[in-house]
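Supplementary Text 2. Reproducibility record for the structural model of the 337-residue chain.

All settings were left at their defaults, and a single model was retained for analysis rather than an ensemble. We include the record here because the model underlies the residue-level annotations in Supplementary Table 4.
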Amino acid sequence: MKVTALKAALIALALLLSGCVSGENQSAPPSSEEGTSLEGRTLDIDFATYNPLSLIIKDQGWLEAQGVKVNWVQSAGSNKANEALRAGAIDIGSTAGSAALLARSNGSPIQVIAIYSQPEWAALVVPKGSDLTNVAQLRGKSVAATKGTDPYFFLLQSLEANGLSPEDVIVQNLQHADGWAALQNGSVDAWAGLDPIMAGAEQTGATLIYRNVDFNSFGFLNAREDFLANEPELAQLVVDAYAAAAVWAGQHPDQTAQILADAAAIDLPVAQKVIRERSNLDVDHVPGPTQLAVLEKIGPIFVDLGDVPNQQQVDDALASIVNDTFAQQADAARFQS
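Retained model, structure tokens:
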């Protein structure tokens, strides 16, 4: 009996140690066999017009149908989503990958748990009738951009690629919609734009003078680490819903465009342009090396600008920002009738 008991104890210890190694620094989602009830649980989550999948999930009411009390909070930009995550106002929020890395590098305890798009959502925009036709002509000009978001980092990369530095332009830190308004009223010469507002601007005659899909980072679905540790079932539910929304969007492109048009208060042709031409919603939703490779190019910009004190903080963030355990076992069929 003693030998058997000792053997059992050793096996249990080995399994415990093995589990610690394989799941180190990761919040593992629950097994589907657990059957944990989500009835009455509360989820604070964002939706954003730059994240069409969030609009689908909200419109379809999938999370609420699981008995979850959902508090939907609109994010006007990645910077606002990061602020809400850090303040604990939301559990899960959608940002550009660059914005998530900046937040993590500065100590925000968030991890990316899924990818929701691979968009070309940022470009440099000038108003109708502008004499500006290229990036080099922006020297000494005023440019609107929302700091801490993909369009801002798009601007910085665009300047560098065309022989300019951030000091060569006057950056007006305005939220995306306010940047477009400033461009319209002549307060700025150019705008680092974001869809779907940017697509609407094009319809009125605004011109995209510089595009580069490689300067756009992926759409990141982020969660607070304490939420992942305390509510893994809810986290898995959300990731499953995002997987289902990607499938639904592929099957219903016209309805997806209509949902975006309604949420963003834009014309349907503008929404169709965003969905059909500048949004890749059929991207692999598991975060990993592909996204990190993009962020590795952006990280040093944070340090050069003083937005992050040193490269070590960026490197530490890159090493810890991805939590792929939920996306690896995402079940889109959970929401398909």
